[in-house]
Design goal:
Elements: H1 40-48, H2 63-76, H3 81-96
């Protein structure tokens, strides 16, 4: 008999483990088989992403492409995206105090 793994106390909900990163798939459980038993992100980088994973590809759902769109928009508004994240981190740390 196979052991059934449970996620965060949910009864009778079998854990779905990504075959790429070996972490639990929770957000897109319904698409687990569609994405070859992976997270959507793992699937994208494994099968769809063209070229360097740190660079955007042509897929509009690519997270690197979306980040580039945000960086470009911030620059057009006069905001340095490379300075924004550390400043946001500092503000978050201040809020925790």
């Amino acid at each position: 008999m196979n052991e059934q793994h449970l996620i965060s106390g949910e009864k009778n909900k079998e854990a779905l483990i990504c075959i790429k990163c070996h972490k639990s798939v929770e957000r897109h459980r319904a698409d687990y088989e569609l994405f070859e038993k992976m997270h959507w992100l793992c699937f994208h980088f494994e099968f769809e992403h063209e070229g360097d994973p740190d660079s955007p590809c042509s897929d509009p759902s690519c997270p690197q492409w979306r980040l580039q769109v945000y960086r470009d928009k911030l620059r057009s508004l006069g905001v340095d995206p490379d300075a924004l994240v550390p400043a946001a981190g500092d503000a978050r740390d201040d809020d925790k105090r």
